[in-house]
């Protein structure tokens, strides 16, 4: 691999989700409606958690952070994709591509670590209840959130640093509707085998290990809950089941995209659409719909504003 970046490509042409005008129009309408309904819902979740003193437990603090991360994540890809649906030529500058890639992995990496933190929170609450208030104090929660942002930054900056060292001197057509590592690497004018391995290790292995670790954690928690006879048994099972659903939504597409050699598969774009636009907006909603306290608080806040 060359030590100097001899990039002459100044922009990339995005080939988009599909070449069919009819499908593009259908996806545009569906994503627009979905975006306009679900995104305000995410901000309402954040507002509810911030304004209700009864939702001060770490679980709700982390849920508010999840809603913020997911809303931010959806802003990276969806708005530009909607604009591109209406554009004849879908172009993104080299710097714009790198910026999009950076924030995509900053927020994606941060969210993956947040789900790990939320699993740790549930483990302490269920398996070590007497130590919960000490181990999950507000100070500790803030430190954890700071750490996951730092972890997301380190993960993302490694991705960007490896991409910036690659020379781009020829083809500039990205076979996707946004900039991501697998498609960008393919356009480099050099042998990218080592870089691909490093990318798979940084993104794919991290995603897979987090996923397996989270599944193992929730298996232990559910086993512990199932043999207990406490009043909150059903609530604990419901909360953990919700977390597991979100883990599959978050990590399933990530594993599909990043843990294999960078070869194109027909399903890649569809999986990417769900991974970057649909699932991030759905995650907090899934949590909320299965949490009676947050639902009751949202209804109360909504009624206050109506009356």
TrEMBL record:
GO terms for cellular component: plasma membrane. The keyword Signal does not apply. It is a multi-pass membrane protein. Its main location: membrane. Keywords: Cell membrane, G-protein coupled receptor, Membrane, Olfaction, Receptor, Sensory transduction, Transducer, Transmembrane, Transmembrane helix. Residues 41-287 form the G-protein coupled receptors family 1 profile domain. One of its GO terms (molecular function) is olfactory receptor activity. InterPro entries: GPCR_Rhodpsn, GPCR_Rhodpsn_7TM, Olfact_rcpt, Olfactory_Receptors. It comes from the Eukaryota. Gene3D superfamilies: Rhodopsin 7-helix transmembrane proteins. Pfam families: 7tm_4. The keyword Transferase does not apply. SUPFAM superfamilies: Family A G protein-coupled receptor-like. It is found in: Cell membrane; Membrane. The chain crosses the membrane at residues 23-47, 59-78, 98-120, 140-164, 205-225, 237-258, 270-289. Belongs to the G-protein coupled receptor 1 family. This is Olfactory receptor. It comes from Octodon degus.
């Amino acid at each position: 691999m060359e030590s100097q970046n001899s990039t002459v490509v100044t922009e990339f042409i995005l080939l988009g989700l599909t070449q069919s005008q009819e499908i593009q129009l259908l996806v545009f309408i569906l994503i627009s409606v979905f975006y306009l309904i679900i995104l305000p819902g995410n901000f309402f979740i954040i507002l509810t958690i911030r304004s209700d003193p009864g939702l001060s437990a770490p679980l709700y603090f982390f849920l508010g952070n999840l809603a913020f991360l997911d809303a931010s994540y959806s802003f990276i890809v969806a708005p530009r994709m909607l604009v591109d649906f209406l554009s004849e030529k879908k172009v993104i500058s080299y710097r714009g591509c790198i910026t999009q890639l950076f924030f995509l992995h900053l927020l994606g990496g941060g969210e993956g670590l947040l789900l790990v933190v939320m699993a740790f929170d549930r483990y302490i609450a269920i398996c070590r209840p007497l130590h919960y208030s000490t181990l999950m104090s507000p100070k500790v929660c803030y430190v954890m959130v700071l750490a996951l942002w730092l972890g997301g930054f380190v993960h993302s900056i490694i991705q960007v640093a490896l991409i910036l060292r690659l020379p781009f001197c020829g083809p500039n057509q990205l076979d996707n509707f946004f900039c991501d590592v697998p498609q960008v690497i393919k356009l480099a004018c050099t042998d990218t085998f080592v870089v691909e391995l490093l990318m798979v290790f940084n993104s794919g292995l991290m995603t897979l290990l987090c996923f397996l670790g989270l599944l193992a954690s929730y298996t232990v928690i559910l086993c512990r809950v199932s043999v207990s006879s406490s009043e909150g048994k059903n609530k604990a099972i419901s909360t953990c089941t919700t977390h597991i659903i979100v883990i599959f939504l978050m990590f399933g597409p990530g594993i599909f995209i990043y843990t294999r050699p960078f070869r194109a598969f027909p399903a890649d774009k569809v999986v990417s659409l769900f991974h970057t636009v649909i699932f991030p907006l759905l995650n907090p909603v899934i949590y909320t719909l299965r949490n009676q306290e947050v639902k009751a608080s949202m209804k109360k806040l909504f009624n206050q504003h109506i009356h």
